[in-house]
Amino acid sequence: MEMDMDQIKVGIIGLGSVGSKVKQALDAHPAMEVAALCEQNLDLLHSHLGSSEGVAAYSDYRSLLEREQVDLIYLAVPPKHHHAIALDILRAGKHLLCEKPLANSVEEAEEMLAAADRAGVVHAMNFPTYYRPSGRALLNLVREGKLGAIRKIAIKAHFPQWPRSWQRNSWISSREQGGFVREVLPHFLQLAHRCFGKAGEIITRVEYPADSEACETGITAWMALTDGGNDPIPVLIDGLSQAGVKEEASLTIYGSEGTAQLIDWSGLRIGRAEEDFTELALEQHDHLLELVDHVARAIRGDHHDLITFREGLEVQRTLEMLRGN
């Protein structure tokens, strides 16, 4: 991970729970220098400045873009703000690492991809499950044929309460831009798309509460993934919140020779016919630091493994179809 070239200067827009975690990875990477922070919550902004000597601080991202000579922007604001801010970042010619989902609609996501391509910059997304040891190992099991022919995929997202206790904020429970369908399913959709292709036919039923501003409380869906060559692979999606259930977020891939399940983000277990699941021992590493390393490699022109806006757009299309849009 050592790099001899000048450091890549980074501006961060948004310092919520996820943004703060990625900031730690950016701070830790030898090729990155966090030069500027932007956050409208001034208490939160000042709390980060205490451990970031010499870093410029802003409450308006436009001022950061006008005044700071940064190379890369990490955008970690709520989804409905991605589009407008990202277009300004790209017009300024900055490389862009964006949180998921890419945007708040397919149309916005398409415009963001087109703008990134015009700008000729590195564009990438933070889908952290892809970089976790569990996500890497799951995809390897499939690619190496360890599960045999893939028969079916199941995605489960159960939450006794949404949002969860550590997620309380002004938007994550809103119908406009929140909900577990937007926040949780993209992690699994990205993995499924990367391995099995695009979504074709989709049948979906989304449950909403009486409050017209509140997010969904359930989803039951079926879709088919196809890479244009092999037979489509069916995907079953079971999502539920505000219910008497145990919290579980899982992606299960059923094959003719075995079944693999990624559960609660870090766990991976495998089962065979007439056998219980066995937890796989995985060598752990900092998955966010790996993401940042790939961003640095892309900016340097080296080999990298990034999830670009193009892949983010495919996830957005599937997401909006699942939501019935």
Automatic annotation (TrEMBL):
Organism: Cohnella lubricantis
Gene3D superfamilies linked: Dihydrodipicolinate Reductase, domain 2, NAD(P)-binding Rossmann-like Domain
A family per Pfam: GFO_IDH_MocA_C
Occurrences of domain Gfo/Idh/MocA-like oxidoreductase C-terminal (ranges): 141-321
GO molecular function, a single term: nucleotide binding
Protein name, as recorded: Gfo/Idh/MocA family oxidoreductase
Phylogenetic placement of the source organism: Bacteria, Bacillati, Bacillota, Bacilli, Bacillales
UniProt family annotation: Belongs to the Gfo/Idh/MocA family.
Alphabetized PANTHER family for the sequence: BILIVERDIN REDUCTASE A (PTHR43377)
Domain Gfo/Idh/MocA-like oxidoreductase N-terminal: 8-126
Database matches in InterPro entries: Gfo/Idh/MocA-like_OxRdtase_C (IPR004104), Gfo/Idh/MocA-like_OxRdtase_N (IPR000683), Gfo/Idh/MocA_Oxidoreductases (IPR051450), NAD(P)-bd_dom_sf (IPR036291)
